[in-house]
UniProtKB/TrEMBL annotation:
Pfam family, one: AHSA1
Taxonomy, superkingdom: Bacteria
Domain Activator of Hsp90 ATPase homologue 1/2-like C-terminal: 23-159, 190-328
InterPro entries: ASHA1/2-like_C (IPR013538), START-like_dom_sf (IPR023393)
Name this protein carries in UniProt: Uncharacterized protein YndB with AHSA1/START domain
UniProt family annotation: Belongs to the AHA1 family.
Length: 331
């Protein structure tokens, strides 16, 4: 077990957890930055977590839901305060109601994680600051120590897995709930470079093309809240054309961009295209050791629409575009 300390201090209203791991600090740090890895150990084995948002930057927000063996769900959130990669980060930690709102009936804590190198790998130290002795006692009574030990016991397997989350894996889809899809890909470039490649037309038209044989004659990006974008693609013999439009809902350069997306009705659209469905796309960029982790959470109107879109080969087309981004745009 990696957990080496679990200490409460009633006078300082703190709970301190220490754990040691046989991996470098950066490997352990990345496990907390990557929602795909984090959700494999954040909850105990009987209550695995699914992160629906993970903004690892000051001012960002993370949300997750832990699902129990009987199907019961328990939500939580992090409100990010500070981040000094790969040394420390802090956030406000709270609970969510069943409808996804902040639960004001349960306590919030201020948590600080620090990471330091050791002779055998790395050490993690988490200090939770409580508002009162009653809140500290309440969370300890809820089984926090047992849950922490079970959760921490899963980290070794995650950080030892160098294949599942490697950049060479390419674009990876993950179904979340009934209507969401999370697509993840490590891009070999900085967050600033990847952001520019998604919001500057002269860069986008060089890589955002999907399969060979298509061009992007219309590229009108948007990166300010309330602005609209329009993209159109056309095949080489001009027999097929399709496009998308939408509005920017959130923008936090160079880390987060949230937009709506609706397919345009254009002459010569590929067979099977559906112009009626509107999705919400949440793109998050997170610096990791091998580049930038790009995650896009797509929310569809229903499960049927998600299935139909996946059947078009969307993920394969995204991988072709991202590979072109690395080879043709990024240094």
């Amino acid at each position: 077990m990696p957990l080496t300390g679990f200490t409460t201090n009633a006078e300082e209203l703190t709970l301190t957890i220490t754990a040691e791991f046989p991996v470098p600090v950066k490997r352990l740090w990345d496990a907390y930055m990557d929602p795909r890895q984090l959700e494999k150990f954040w909850g105990p084995p009987t209550y695995p977590a699914t992160f629906t948002r993970h903004d690892a930057f000051p001012g960002g927000l993370s949300t997750y839901v832990m699902t129990g063996p009987e199907g019961d769900t328990h939500g939580g959130y992090w409100e990010w305060l500070t981040l000094d990669a790969p040394h420390s980060f802090s956030y406000l930690d709270g609970f969510l109601t069943p409808d996804g709102q902040r639960n004001t009936d349960l306590p919030t804590t201020r948590n600080t994680f620090t990471f330091e190198a050791t002779a055998s790998g790395s050490r993690l130290r988490e200090v939770s600051h409580f508002n009162s002795a009653e809140e500290l006692e309440q969370l300890v009574a809820m089984g926090m120590e047992e849950g922490t030990r079970e959760a921490m016991g899963q980290i070794d397997d995650v950080v030892a897995d160098l294949k599942s989350f490697a950049a060479e894996r390419g674009t990876q889809p993950q179904l979340i709930g009934d209507t969401q899809l999370r697509v993840s890909r490590i891009i070999r470039g900085s967050a600033e470079q990847v952001w520019r490649a998604h919001v500057e037309a002269d860069l986008m038209t060089r890589w955002m093309l999907g399969p060979d044989g298509w061009t992007m004659p219309v590229c009108e990006p948007a990166a300010e809240v309330g602005d609209t974008y329009r993209y159109e693609w056309e095949n080489d013999d001009a027999t097929q054309r399709f496009g998308f439009t939408g509005e920017v809902l959130e923008a936090e350069a160079p880390y987060r961009l949230v937009t709506t997306e609706r397919m345009l009705s254009l002459a010569g659209m590929p067979e099977g295209s559906d112009s009626s469905a509107t999705t919400q796309n949440e793109m998050t960029l997170t610096p990791v050791e091998s580049g930038t982790l790009l995650t896009t959470l797509i929310t569809y109107p229903d499960a049927k629409t998600r299935e139909e879109v996946l059947a078009t080969g969307m993920v394969d087309g995204m991988e072709l575009s991202y590979a072109r981004l690395e080879s043709a745009v990024l240094p």
